[in-house]
Specification:
This protein is α+β, with helices and mostly antiparallel strands and 180 residues long. The chain is built from four helices and seven strands, in the order ββααβαββββα. It has a seven-stranded mixed beta sheet.
Length: 180
Amino acid sequence: MRYIQAGARSLTGTAVCIVIRDPPKAIILPSCRESTMSTESNAAKLQRLADEVLTGHNLAALDEIFHADYVEDEPPPGMGPGRDGLRQWLAGWIAAFPDARWTVEEQIAGGDKVWTRSIWQGTHKGSFLGIPATGKNITVAAWTIDRFTDGKIAESRIIMDTLGMMQQLGVIPAPGAPPS
């Protein structure tokens, strides 16, 4: 992975280091070098989440990736609290999209937070959010903001293109589509 970092000062005068993952050119400024390991480690942890859990469906890895006191700031419908709530919700998502593949497209990391833009693809083969299996292949954009504590995700906010997903599943008509 390549990173670009920029040092700055926040409004309170605190040094801020921003890392952008995988740009065309990478520059690491000396003022930010000490935070490079944690930002690289955090980005690697999110890649592991995408590869091992969201694509590989290994829910046992959640304990190594998510902090015991994990909080989802914007939980999806039906998700219970904490790491166990996430585990149960993901089990339902995996059952509904058993061939799901999650791809990290971009990341920006600063301090203890990582912002990620991803897409996931899968075939709707089981009930999801009360929608019976449609057999349709879908691609959904997702954006997350994750905060790390002790090398694990302690807090997260995920925003997905739910409207686009519902249109692809045929639950909501796409703009300009004939009424069904």
